[in-house]
Amino acid sequence: MSIEKKRFHAALIVPLFMLILMWIERFAEYAFGISLAFLGIHPLHADGLPGIILSPFIHGGFKHLLANSVPFLILSVALFYFYRNLAVKVLLFVWLMTGIWVWIMGREAYHIGASGLIYGMASFLFFSGVIRKNTQLAALALVVAFLYGSMIWGAVPGFFPKEHISWESHLGGLFSGLVMAIYYRKSGPQRKKYSWEIEEEAEPEPGDETDAYWKKPDTTLRE
Questions:
Q1: Is residue 21 part of a domain?
Q2: How far apart are CA 180 and CA 94, in angstroms?
Q3: 39 is in which domain, residue-wise?
Q4: Looking at the 3D structure of the chain, how many domains does it have?
Q5: CA-to-CA separations, 32 to 25, 37, 60, in angstroms, rounded
Q6: Interatomic CA distance for residues 137 and 66, integer angstroms
């Protein structure tokens, strides 16, 4: 098995595990005729604190879950494939910070669903690719923008006035992803440096210690 295939398979582990848990939860609700929405984020209420962790696994129905499943899988696999050394840290930060933001600033309701994570990962992948000036990552950023660029409207208050959409989760995810992209801009995959750039960095500046050493006359010579 090639290294790239191994990387891809490794990148699938966490995303698939989380997605399977989401579907198990939804089937359990359907099978027992119950709703676990009360385990979502209930802003400024103690009973809503567990929702900071649990809300991404709870959805309002199969349609809601299906709409989130594809973008969640694509973006999370991309995160773990291209940023494998940072992926867990980025995911956890986006997860917690989005949840905390919603708990503090959200409307009076139970906020559920994985859309906050989706917005956070999309934001991180896009801004990180732009900041790093890495050709491969910049291409990934363009793909993310092309596929999910319209999601930006989902973070605008009042854009879905007649729908039960948590724009607070979307906005929190976008901001969390941007913060992580800036914070980890010097970590993980970096832009490849070309030979002429390396030579320019290695070339001593006039008057520096290295230059002075080579210009110093050799006093051990005899005429």
A1: yes
A2: 8
A3: 3-215
A4: 1
A5: 11, 14, 15
A6: 27
